[in-house]
Every structure is written in C-alpha cells, then in structure tokens.
Amino acid sequence: MADFICPVCALPLELYDGVYRCDNNHCFDKSKYGYVNLLRSNSSSAKRHGDDRLMIRARRDFLSKGYYSFLLDGLCDICAEYAPANALLIDAGCGECYYSSSILGVFPSYSAAGADISKDALEFAYKRGVRFPLCAASVSALPFEDGKADIILSCFAPDSPAEFKRILKPGGILIKVMPLEEHLFSLKEAIYENPYPNERPDTEQDGFELTEYREIRREITLDNSEDIMNLFRMTPYYYKTGRDDQQKAEKLEKLTTCAAFGIAIFKK
After folding, report:
1. Cα distance between residue 140 and residue 164, in whole Å
2. CATH numeric code, 34-180+197-215+260-267
3. What residues does each domain of the chain span?
4. Does the reported pTM lie above 0.70?
5. 113: CB partners within 8 A, 6+ apart
6. How would you classify the pairing of strands 255-267 and 209-222?
7. Mind listing the pLDDT tens digit for each residue in 134-178?
C-alpha cells in the first residue's frame, strides 16, 4: 500500500481515528470524503484550486458514457505488459480517478493512491466509490515515500520529473498520456474561426528512458447536445472561449470527431 509522508517534515504519516499524524506531531484530518489535505498553505501551488466543479462534473458524465474506453483499454494493456502482478500505482493528478480506479477493477491485485490539487475532484472520486488513499497535493510535492511506486500514471496532468523519479522504484514505469495534434479537431472547427492543432507530444523526460511510445486514435460520434457540451466543458477550450463561441457549441446536436492520444512509457 502507498504510505503518505508529512508535507512539513517528510516523516511517515500514520492514521489514527481519522487523523494522519507523524512522529513530529504534525496532524492532518481525513475529510468526510475520504481524502486528506496535504497541500502546504504557503506554497504557490496551494493557492490554485485546480479543476472546478463544472469541469469535473462534465468529465465524469462524459467518461461514464464510455467514449474513451479505448484509451482505458490501452492503459490496461501497458500495465499488463510492463508492471508486476502486485503493482503499486500512483495516479499523479488523479482527478476523479476514472482511469486509475478502472485499472484496479481489471487488476484487483494492484494497490493505488492518488493526488490532485482539486479538492472538488477528490470529493467526486469518493462519491463514485473510490476508496484507495487520496490526498490533496500538488504533483510538484507528492507526499509519497521514496522508491515505492511501480507505476506512475499521468493523464493530461502537469509534469514533475524530479518527483516522479523520486517515488518510483528502480525499473518502475511512468505512463504519460497526452493529446495528439488532431485530438478533437472537429470540435474546434465547429467553434472557432481559425482552429489550430495541438502541439506534438514531447517524448523527452528528464531522468527517464523512453521505453515505448504508442499512438491510439478513435473516431467518436456524439449524438446529443448534452454529451457535446460535457466534452467541451471538460477541456481547457471552454474556459478560454468567449460567450459567442460557447453558444456555437451549445447549438450542436451531433458531432463526429477524432479522439487521439499519445502514450509515452518511460522507465526509471
């Protein structure tokens, strides 16, 4: 199992009666939604709220329809190929844990833990039944012990090479999922006057060896405005788009677009 460490002194935290405590008597309450807040209040990252409830709810509702199940299948294939049977998986930037909790459903011998800066996302994870250890923390200061993880999963999340390297075992793997250039391009075409492709995924990672790089694509069709708006709202595009362009998306009743992902597999 993953063990949390104190964000103040880095000593192990033990859970007693709903309170995480280290030997230096730093204490952190476990919330009613199962996670513990290990964000340092004086750190710059702690001042950000992470994904808001609108984005989280949209992502939950969209993913629950199975549109990205082919990506989940691809992640499970990688785990089966590269990880031991009793792997410890750390989901860094876990959100509501759709991918990590689904992987544990396929590999029940795994254990897992997740960290996300958004407390709202962790609340949603708890409400959808996630019961492995979760904490509010930045990926730049992950409160996990050195050299314990077999897998770090980073799906569309901020990068933190030094922290990833610290908590991985020798020979452990980092799985990074990134959007490809054409990802959701038809959605952009429907909304923007001059859409542009995403940047090419970066397959360089400090301190790691690229073991394999895979690309997976699937054409998906959304046949109702609710699913289209959930897709739009779960992306950064919605929050960078003016009201006039948002209304273009609201009027769409059907959308066919390419969902395209690059998956880089790095080894420590």
Report:
1. 9
2. 3.40.50.150
3. 34-180+197-215+260-267
4. yes
5. 1, 2, 4, 88, 89, 90, 91, 132, 133, 134, 135, 144
6. antiparallel
7. 999 999 999 999 999 999 999 999 999 999 999 999 999 999 999
